[in-house]
From TrEMBL:
It is found in: Cytoplasm, Cytosol. Residues 27-234 form the Dienelactone hydrolase domain. One of its GO terms (molecular function) is hydrolase activity. SUPFAM superfamilies: alpha/beta-Hydrolases. Pfam families: DLH. The lineage of its organism: Eukaryota, Metazoa, Chordata, Craniata, Vertebrata. Its main location: cytoplasm. GO terms for cellular component: cytosol. It comes from Merops nubicus. This is Carboxymethylenebutenolidase homolog.
Length: 236
């Protein structure tokens, strides 16, 4: 199996988090709050590298800086995330024990903790957000970044407005799959949705910290983040 990340995830700059860790019932989570009071919240669903990965905590802090309580729960419930030293031949077996379509219980616990909510997910988390947009009407809207459900006939019946973000050179999601998603959503979807493909970008592009970006990629990464925040602000 090809590596889903073309960037070397083992080499990242240090990051000093702005938020802190909390526990909600049985779930550990990383949370960051804006400097003023608000009920508006965003749930960030991490990728295969888990809730402790610095890139995902940077995204939590970034969204919080736009005025939202932002929280990233440990959807792996204390089990090991995928590690950069793991072998991709074992990835399919690992996914059997980390199913992004089985996040409903943990999402429900976090939703009780928050009030107005939007879901944002990256890769594995993107699939989880797509799933939640089909199953959970409590969420006001969702952003799925380079992660979609591919094997369910119900995957086009969105309950909540959803923004799908893709990289043009993401070798895990083909252009044909994106085109099919767009065609079927036009046919079946009854809520607002948006699909956008960012030129030249690979899987995982939108969650890099500034110091880890390549100069040619930076404008597209910043554009994707701006688009993500604008979508959230439309609904909460």
């Amino acid at each position: 199996m090809a590596d889903p990340f073309l960037y070397n995830t083992g080499e990242r700059s240090q990051y000093g988090c702005l938020g802190h860790e909390i526990q909600i019932e049985h779930i550990n989570a990383y949370i960051c709050r804006p400097s003023f009071f608000t009920d508006k919240a965003v749930i960030v669903i991490h990728d295969i590298f888990g809730w402790l990965f610095p890139d995902i905590r940077y995204i939590v802090d970034l969204i919080a800086g736009h005025g939202y309580i932002t929280i990233c729960p440990d959807f792996f419930k204390g089990t090991d995330p995928w590690k950069t030293t793991d072998h991709w031949a074992d990835f399919a077996d690992w996914m059997k024990h980390h199913d992004p379509m089985k996040v409903d219980k943990e999402a429900g616990v976090v939703l009780k903790y928050l009030k107005e909510q939007c879901g944002v997910g990256f890769s594995w988390g993107g699939m989880a957000v797509h799933h939640l947009m089909l199953k959970n009407p409590q969420l006001a809207a969702g952003v799925s970044l380079y992660g979609i459900i591919r094997d369910s006939e119900e995957r086009y019946n969105l309950l909540n407005p959803t923004f799908f973000i893709f990289g043009e050179k993401d070798h895990t999601i083909s252009f044909d799959q994106i085109t099919l998603l767009d065609e079927k959503l036009k046919q079946y979807c009854k809520v607002a949705y948006k699909i956008k493909v960012y030129p030249g970008q690979v899987h995982g592009f939108a969650q890099l910290k500034p110091e880890d970006m390549k100069p040619d990629d930076k404008p597209y990464i910043e554009e994707a983040r701006k688009d993500m925040i604008e979508w959230i602000k439309m609904f909460i």
